[in-house]
Write a structure and sequence with these properties.
Length: 474
């Protein structure tokens, strides 16, 4: 049975490196005042690195001094090369006390020197042990490794991490210097977890720094002239279509987008303005909302409110949804006719549903969640603990949302031939095609806020629009 004495071999080779009296290679690393020379043995270098095997061959060597091979690597810092040289001689590396910058330098140098085992180890080390440093230096890291095909693992991991939490990148002092192609790729992604108004704000910040004549010395738009706006427009031209303007609130549009209308192409701005003023979706919008865990094609509510509803279904924050939701349109009053029988014919036996009702004389939206689905029967109560009634002040914004959950399970849904739908005879569509409101005590104490003001007035409205959606999860 054989024995292995790797430890002794490593120590002896380390002594050989430190006392290299018989060396035949001098490698000069660094530049300027950081230049340092290392003595080494060509046989060991060639055996351990395919790069040196070629570089130290007779066909490549051009500089000799008294039979000493002189080799220059100004692009590798001495501290980095010392780590690599020790690994070449001993097969050992200790990165525990090294700075992230030095470790990144080792990664790049080992890629060039074709030392695959050390390269793979260092790349994994940066991901597993140094990622807090990577997060603090995203721009340096992705600019460095983005140019190296072999560093795809670290690059992809960094980009995925940025998408999960963009804040360390966009708030860093280096963000304004981010490469335009990398920024474009990030803004194009649907999984970039960023509020759209923040995407706009930081795009502007980046664009101002990237534009000649602007930057930190001229970032007050009140002092800009037409040429400044034209220059910024040119900088941002390819990025503007990546902003999901329909996911920005009307107040943020007025305060933060409208002042920069000069940098937005005219046709794009007109479509955006028409959306905010007339609720008409832009024709040229090609990108879906970011991180869309909910899909809905509604004329009454925007995606942000559909996400709120999905969060209510799961009883959690809509940003933490465990499922992907698809709201499939079953019925639309203005399309199919506002009629009890038509609604029932399209919605019965379809599974769980959401009903949305638009008030004819205001922006208010009323709704209800039926987890049991609708069926056609005469005078039957159906029980569930999951139904709820809700209202929004408008179809766009999440301010002033109200929800009332069932508190008397046996009286959640009322099935009746004369009703298009009925949430406990509290919120229902009657045979006259009007929507009625009445606090029966079946839903919790917030019901008056949900139904207000109509529960205390006429008690019914003529709907401008009704939509019913079947809810499925992926």
């Amino acid at each position: 049975m054989g024995s292995k004495f790797h430890t002794d071999l490593s120590q002896e080779l380390l002594l050989m490196l430190n006392d290299a009296d018989d060396h035949n290679v001098v490698i000069q690393t660094g530049t300027g005042q950081t230049i340092k020379e290392f003595r080494a043995h060509s046989n060991i270098l060639r055996a351990r690195s395919p790069y040196f095997k070629s570089a130290l061959s007779a066909n490549w060597i051009t500089t000799k001094n008294n039979n000493m091979i002189e080799f220059k690597k100004p692009n590798i810092r001495p501290v980095v090369f010392e780590i690599i040289l020790k690994y070449i001689y001993t097969g050992e590396v200790d990165l525990s006390n090294q700075s992230g910058d030095n470790i990144l330098g080792v990664l790049v140098a080992t890629d060039e020197l074709l030392i695959d085992k050390l390269f793979n180890y260092v790349q994994d080390h940066l991901i597993e042990k140094q990622f807090n440093w990577v997060k603090q230096n995203y721009v340096l890291v992705i600019h460095t490794v983005g140019k190296l095909a072999s560093c795809k693992k670290l690059y992809d991991y960094s980009i995925e991490s940025i998408c999960q939490d963009p804040k360390p990148l966009i708030t860093s002092k280096d963000f304004p210097s981010l490469d335009k192609d990398i920024l474009y790729g990030l803004l194009k992604r649907d999984d970039l977890r960023i509020e759209e108004i923040d995407a706009w704000d930081y795009l502007l910040k980046w664009g101002i720094e990237q534009t000649s004549g602007l930057g930190s010395k001229n970032n007050d738009r009140k002092k800009w002239n037409d040429n400044n706006y034209k220059a910024l427009k040119k900088t941002l031209n390819r990025f503007i279509p990546l902003i999901r303007f329909v996911d920005i609130s009307s107040s943020d549009f007025f305060d933060k987008i409208r002042p920069y209308r000069a940098v937005i192409p005219h046709h794009t701005y007109e479509e955006i303005a028409e959306f905010y003023y007339k609720d008409t979706l832009p024709k040229t919008t090609t990108f879906p909302p970011r991180n869309a865990k909910v899909q809905i094609e509604s004329k009454l509510i925007r995606l942000n409110l559909a996400c709120v509803i999905a969060g209510w279904i799961e009883r959690r924050n809509d940003k933490e949804l465990s499922n992907k939701y698809n709201f499939q349109l079953l019925y639309r009053g203005t399309q199919d006719g506002i009629n009890v029988n038509t609604l029932r014919s399209k919605c019965n036996n379809q599974g769980r549903c959401i009903v949305l009702v638009k008030h004819q004389e205001s922006t208010k939206i009323y709704g209800g969640y039926n987890p049991l689905g609708f069926m056609h029967s005469g005078g039957q109560w159906r029980g569930t603990s999951e139904s709820f009634i809700f209202s929004f002040e408008s179809g766009r914004n999440i301010q002033n949302t109200n929800i009332s959950r069932i508190n008397s399970n046996s009286y959640a849904i009322y099935e009746c031939y004369n009703h298009g739908f009925s949430f406990g005879n509290t919120f229902y569509m009657n045979s006259d095609n009007r929507i009625y409101f009445s606090n029966q005590g079946y839903y919790d104490n917030n019901i008056n806020n949900v139904l207000s003001p109509h529960i205390n007035q006429s008690g019914n409205i003529v709907p401008q629009e009704i939509e019913v959606f079947k809810i499925t999860t992926c």
